[in-house]
Amino acid sequence: MLVMGIDPGLSRCGYGVVRQKGRVTEAVAAGIIRTDKDDPVPKRLYELQVELAELMDSYRPDAVAIEQVLFQVNVRTAMGVGQASGVAMAAGVGAGAEVFEYSPTQIKKAVTGWGGADKEQMGRMVQTLLGLPQPLRPVDAADAVAVALCHLAHAPAASRIQAAM
Predict the structure, then answer these.
(1) Active-site choice (51, 67, 98, 143)
(2) With the CA atoms of 28, 32, 114 and 80 taken in that order, what torsion angle do they form, in degrees rounded to the nearest 10?
């Protein structure tokens, strides 16, 4: 199974692709998509859409897992993250992948075993789980890989729930 994880953001959108073969999970790709904060929001969303579509066309994920936007203090930031999340969902469906959302707590529990893990702990566990020589940078890429790993942990149940809906 090939899973693309997305840590949505309008300025920096993290992506990570992992492959699971049997009991072995490997990192395939990770990075971020940046948009210029001085550009109008519609242009930035379009650029994000194009980049995500190209990535999905290149990797052809079976599933796209996206971190849910639950709460942010800055309403403007929350709007941008929500819009980026919507673009990522649409790109995933357009690529023919199943699309799933996971809360930050679900992701932390799946990767570290604790829902209160901080960014550093998450980064170290992603590194350990994938046998990487060093933590992934930038952190948005590591977060996206964590979302993909969360999906792999939940995939059997998530597929059954999605099919039932």
Answers:
(1) 67
(2) -140
* Residue of 51, 98, 140, 143 with catalytic role: 140
What is the Cα–Cα distance from 8 to 33, expressed in whole angstroms?
Answer: 10
Is the predicted pLDDT of residue 52 greater than 70, yes or no? yes
Residue of 7, 51, 98, 101 marked catalytic: 7
Cβ count near 75 (within 10 Å):
8
Q: Which residues of 124-153 are buried (b: 16+ CB within 10 A; e: fewer)?
A: ebbbebbebeebbeebbbbbbbbbbbbbbb
> Is 67 one of the catalytic residues?
yes
pLDDT at 117: 85
Among this protein's residues, is 140 annotated catalytic? Answer: yes
In the predicted structure, residue 22 carries a pLDDT above the cut 90: no
Does the pLDDT at position 164 exceed 70? no
Supply 96's token pair: 């023919």
- Gap between the Cα atoms of 98 and 105, Å rounded: 21
pTM, rounded to two decimals: 0.90
